[in-house]
Amino acid sequence: MKRKRIEKRLEDLKVRPHLIDYEKIYKEFQWEEVASQFEGLPGGGLNIAHEAIDRHANGVLVHKTALVWLGEDGQRREFTFMQMKQESNKFANVLRSLGLSKGDRVFTLSTRLPELYIAAMGVFKNRSVLCPLFSQFGPEPILQRMVRGDAKVLLTTKSLFEKKVRPLLDQLPQLEVVLLIDAQEDESEKVRSLARLMQKASDVFEILPTDPEDMSLLHFTSGTTGMPKGVVHVHKAIYMHWMSGRYVLDLYPEDIYWCTADPGWVTGTSYGMITPWLHGITNIVSEAEFDAQQWYKILQDEKVSIWYTAPTAIRRLMRLDFDPLKTYDLSSLRLVQSVGEPLNPEAVIWGMEKLKLPIHDNWWQTETGGIMIANLISQPIWSGSMGRPLPGVEAAIVQKKENGGIAEIIGPYKEGELALKPGGPSMFRGYLHDEERYEKCFVDGWYLTGDLAYKDEEGYFWFIGRADDIIKTSGHMVGPFEVESILMEHPSVAEAGAIGKPDPMVGQLVKAFVSLKEGFEPSEELRRELIGFGRKKLGVAIAPKEIEFLPSLPKTRSGKIMRRLLKAREMGLPEGDISTLEA
Ligand code: ATP
Ligand code: MG
């Protein structure tokens, strides 16, 4: 893999002086300092919505814009911290009037509408539990999750309700109320107009004492490797959100921030709503789905300074033969961060060329609740590396011992499973209804992530692949990421997914599925060229022996390549859970 070290001109990046000395941050970091950033509830305790919204609405940021909402139809609406406080108070009162209290589950199924963000804060205020669903789910995944998650209330829109939920009502006996965002009238006792209830609700709400360990969110994982798991989080996670907002996203009051993730996935809640507001930052929300020109236009028109997105989006921008800086003024942009999948080195370099900014990779999972490993704005980047553990986070590479248990692997470049010291504020507190699975994640004082990686001598972590995706060929362990990243260095390749295909001679042979960039067509000649390219760069032992062209690769709705599906299809096996497969 092409490892390129990217040194940054710190003065160009307007880096805060305190961020420059990583070793010092690491050594001096204390969670107490983060704790001192929070106000706490007047009656005691810690509540996400109080720290993210009310605290600012009660102070000097009262009239600052908290949310800029860009509708699919071109509408633009702004909400100040005060308006967010009042509206979320109303929503909390609506929940209270419906008899919901601490621990009750409120599901949401909506596109990225302002009401979704207001409701989320209202749910936290009422100490109920937010369970966001991705609006593009079909009825089956919705049903599965609502049943498993004991949904009492569902917030949705008229059209999503008609299309996807109404046919399920018989199977959801525990569901008490459906709130329709865009209905003017109640349909029945059960199916209500949100607007009507909000009209009647008071905009004053006292948040009852909230224990930092009270459950706040239930998030389902992406389902990349199998059946999605329900992951339990608590209010205290904001310690990690605040800290990573400062050190990774470098959020400061004058910033305009845009996270492209949908709240149906953990990035869209942790970093699409909670983190920017903990820092009192103006948060951009765009309702529309990906569109390259539209996205560049948002970055330009809204003067976005901090942009948090995902490799899948960056690869889609890379596909186009287009120079954004020739058409758009992106001079406000000072930091691009990416999460969700491995970020191919080619993508980091593309950023340097086309945006004049590197793309900073960071790593975390639904289970960790917040960013754990990252390339900080001030640090040199090794393209292809996830970066270094954040202050307060201890990460290691471990392996199973022969007689049970695990041991830390000391020394650079040794491959093993990525593990974290448990106990961090944002770490999950359980898998819903699956205590056994939860307990299995913890061995000998470490949390096992299920991802394979190695560490280099500077302490940067390098992703190899998910344990389930590793290819065993002729006695070698091959990480799909390495094979895919090499293929992406070829000018024709937009995306690649590598799998191990069972083979009597070598155990598994490496097979790669490839989709091409604009202007390239599949051909036998190109296939042979890519095989030759792989051999030259990777060596015969680990280069793909087979290459197949696909118009696009199967991905989760959050944009992750589903290698398990490529494999199942290749082998003619059942596809398993495909509830999160992109349509
Ligand atoms: P499931 O657990 O249901 O299979 P999932 O693991 O994809 O789905 P998420 O919690 O959304 O669900 O994703 C976390 C995983 O995504 C990580 O464990 C890792 O495999 C991958 N990932 C996230 N960020 C990065 C990154 N920067 N580099 C490499 N992999 C990443
Ligand atoms: Mg996972």
Write the layout of secondary structure elements.
Elements: E1 5-6, H1 10-13, H2 22-28, H3 31-35, H4 48-57, E2 65-70, E3 76-80, H5 81-97, E4 105-109, H6 114-125, E5 129-133, H7 139-148, E6 151-156, H8 158-165, E7 177-180, E8 191-193, H9 194-200, E9 215-220, E10 230-234, H10 238-247, E11 256-259, H11 266-278, E12 282-286, H12 292-301, E13 306-309, H13 311-319, H14 324-327, E14 335-338, H15 345-355, E15 359-363, E16 373-374, E17 381-382, E18 388-389, E19 395-400, E20 406-408, E21 416-420, E22 430-431, H16 435-440, E23 442-443, E24 446-455, E25 461-466, E26 471-473, E27 476-478, H17 480-488, E28 493-503, E29 507-516, H18 524-538, E30 546-549, H19 563-571
Parallel strand pairs: 2-12, 4-5, 4-6, 6-7, 7-8, 11-12, 11-13, 13-14, 14-15, 29-30
Antiparallel strand pairs: 1-17, 2-3, 9-10, 10-22, 15-16, 16-18, 19-20, 19-21, 21-24, 23-24, 24-25, 26-27, 28-29
The structure holds adenosine-5'-triphosphate (ATP) and magnesium ion (MG).
